[in-house]
Predict the 3D structure of the following.
Amino acid sequence: MSIFRVQDIKSVSRHINSNEKNMSALDLTLLSVGSVIGTGVMVLTGIIAAKEAGPGVMLSFLIGGIVASIIVLCYGELCSAVPSSGGSYTFAYVALGELFAYIVGLSISVAYVLSTATVGAGWSAYFVSFLSELGINFPKALSNIPGDGGIVNLPAIIAILLITFVISIGTRESKKVNNIIVLIKVGVIAIFIFIGVFHISSSNWIPFLPYKITGVLSGAAAVFYAYCGFDSIASAAPYVKNPKKSLTIGLLASLGICILVYIAVSAVLTGLTSYKNLDVADALSYGLTIVGKPKIALIVSLGSVIGILAVIFANNFTTSQILATMSRDGLLPKIFGRNNKKDVPIVALWIIGILEAIFAGFFNMKLLASFSSIAFLLVYGTVSFSVIFFRKRYPNLKREFSTPLFPIIPILGTASCLFLMANLPKITWIIFAIILVFILITYFVYGKNNSKIKELQ
């Protein structure tokens, strides 16, 4: 059937010819760390601890990290064998077929848009908190969404549009900005851990599981999106000097760093004060203020204000690349694939930037995080499963990295994603189901009839 036609792997390789090949394995690692470490650790850690997992949020991040590790082992093989700006979308296309690729491509795009909106809202909270510590009171009407008594979250909108502009000036230039931001962010988190560890009270970890194991699992599903930066590496393939090796190195190195950071931060944060007090968006600076370190809290707030911008950078870079690739394949209108002189998909970039700004300015952050989590889980479960079909379709293809314990790891990756999806709220499933139906309708109305891909011979 035409809806299951697959993309020829050779046609994918022909598009890896960018004039902007300037990214190394270190750049990829920093890009992924920039995408992964952000609101998940700086914002959601406190919120999930307060509402769902208590001190057990450490286990939530551990479970999320284990699932992410399994998925990364699948991504490693696909990235090394199929370097493409389409990331998960292209992996599904060459292994499972067009319909799955379309669902994956738009689902991951929706996930990144909602995730970035969440990041923008989290950035706004730290920005307003930082101004407050300087004695400047930003108007609540302009920093809160209508549901929280405000008019619009203006700082979130400005942050997203600013980073969208930075990306538009070119990969070489924006890469330097991103690397600096990521290093600042990692440094700030290191300061938080180093100072906070000396003020931990073990009594704050009792009870460790106030919401039982179900709370931990629910928390794991909610924070999973905090690990979702895989496509930021995969989609950077056209700009990488040695994609087959560097992509895999970047994936494995960045995930290892992020798992350690998340567990360490959640342990310190829940040790500083009772989990009941952590239902705040600027959790790290709040925790330090409680233990009498207002000056350090100010530094952490400033670093967070700068550092969270890297997540917006990586997410928007990734989403624009995926949409441009889908446009090139005929599944989306040509306008999404239009590049500027710096080889940046400028139209796709600004469309997603504007959408994110609207969501960040007017919608609830926790709700957006849940929606992005279920979309990410659907995509990563599909990609994990696609490794099995990819092996069968291309048994003799040279691979710089092969998923170990095949096919156990791909099956575990798929099952883990389904398990975490099952622990998300019912309302999340209902709304995502509506989104999924809309995606299917657009495929049969437009994508299927305009596809440029022929059957693999």
